[in-house]
Amino acid sequence: MSSEWQEIAQSIKGIYGNKEFIPLHEPTFNEKEIEYVTDCIRTGWVSSVGKYVDEFEKRLAEYTGVKRAVAVVNGTAALHIALKAVGIQENDEVFMPALTFIATANAVSYLQAVPHFVDVSEQTLGLDPVKLEEHIREIGEMKNGQLINKKTGRVIRAVVPMHTFGHPVALDELIDVCDRYNLVLVEDAAESLGSFYKGKHTGGFGAVSALSFNGNKIMTTGGGGAILTNDEKLADYAKHITTTAKIPHSWEYRHDEIAFNYRMPNINAALGCAQLEKMDEFILSKRKLTQRYQKLFESIEGITLFTEPFLGTSNYWLQTIILDAHKHNRDAVLGILNSEGVMTRPIWVPMNELMPYKNCPAGDLSVTNELNERIINIPSTPIKED
User: CA-CA distances (angstroms) from residue 73 to 227, 235, 236, 243, 256?
Assistant: First the structure.
């Protein structure tokens, strides 16, 4: 196996110009970013006030097709406020995939609510609506218009699907489940800027959603995130509580509730404006990279390159291979590729296996547990067109 994966490592390096080290994902900048950030610095408005935050929110809403976008400091903050804005309260339970980044569970915990883990689908890598409904029928009952967990007595108030590596989940089916059980849909779209489901941008299906612009995402603001919604009142509230709930006044500092200093700095928004202008270019480059990887892996036994689900158009944020566990050992493959200078990573440890969340409620997680041993992310930085 060692020689085979050493050859694969060299082929991946060839895609990236035979560099000595290939990172998993790095940002792509040019003169436009320098221009906007320099302009921001020259004005002196680099922090809480300046033109670029408003401009970035406007452009982001237009790109994603929603009414409002609220820019914040990171994706976790965006999800925290999204959940608070739809009324998640202490001791509520919130359905989410067990196979996700820990920020999804953390954002729920910040509100003293309880993550409730559900299995994922092999077709999307995201929350499985069939497994979700089966689990609800097993543990849930409707009382006074609310879904109650019969085992804990707690209200289950929301569903938070995550678009894994940019691949859209089965949104229609999840919306149907939410409608049947009076659950709020909050999309964790942190990884899916530029991804579409049936022609509509992810993040525009739920009551509210959260994006991330971390340095390793398809586009970046350095650090940053955003809340997306079509609800004007919800957007106004999100904007208010992410700017310390300060009541507008020319000089006085009056605040009407305990809130958060989550606003995105102007200098980060300047970077974001430049990056957003190149999203179409990034997407095309990502799809070209997918084609290169398809050619590389199509003849290699026991390796499947994961491609966008039916009815979805993915941004291919992170390229993903799924191993046949009978032919390839995940950790051995990771060891070889990383030693050859090709940065690769496994998928996240399932949330129910992490110390903070091991006692949280969960359904059958058989697919999660199986995929956890088979998934590897390989270098995914957009490549230049020939």
Answer: 11, 16, 17, 11, 22
pLDDT bucket at 385, cuts 50 / 70 / 90? low
Quick one: DSSP state of residue 241?
Answer: H
Spell out the residues 6+ positions from residue 146 whose beta carbon is closer than 8 angstroms to its own: 155, 156, 157, 182
Instruction: List pLDDT tens digits, range 150-200.
Output: 999 999 999 999 999 999 999 999 999 999 999 999 999 999 999 999 999
Q: Which among 8, 157, 180 is positioned nearest to 84, based on CA atoms?
A: 157
Structure tokens that stand for 254 in this block:
């009056």
Q: Beta-strand (E) ranges in 283-331? A: 303-305, 312-313, 319-323
Query: What are the C-alpha distances in Å from 129 to residues 137, 194, 202?
Result: 12, 23, 17
What gap in Å lies between CA 175 and CA 145, rounded to an integer? 17
Identify whether the C-beta of residue 331 lies closer than 8 Å to the C-beta of residue 204.
no
For β-strands 312-313 and 114-118, DSSP reports them as unpaired
Q: How far apart are CA 57 and CA 271, in angstroms?
A: 13
- Give the pLDDT of residue 323: 98
Taking residues 82-109, report their average pLDDT.
Answer: 98
pLDDT on residue 386: 52
Q: Which residues pair with 155 in a beta bridge?
A: 148
User: Can you read off the two tokens belonging to residue 81?
Assistant: 């406020």
Burial 152-164 (b: 16+ CB within 10 A, else e): eebbbbbbbbbbb
Find the mean pLDDT for residues 332-358.
98
CA dihedral 101→105→107→108, nearest 10 degrees, is 160
Pairing between β-strand 196-197 and β-strand 312-313 as defined by DSSP bridges = antiparallel
Rounded distance between C-alpha atoms, residue 115 and residue 108, angstroms = 6
Q: Say whether pLDDT at 53 is over 60.
A: yes
- Sign of torsion over alpha carbons 314, 316, 318, 319: positive
Query: Can you give the pTM of this predicted structure?
Result: 0.96
Calculate what percentage of the chain has a pLDDT beyond 90.
95
- The CA-to-CA distance between both ends of the chain, in Å, stands at 33
Total residues found in the chain within this entry: 386
241 vs 258: CA distance, rounded Å: 8
Q: Select from 147, 158, 148 the least CA-distant residue to 113.
A: 158
Contact at 8 Å (CB) between 82 and 209? Answer: yes
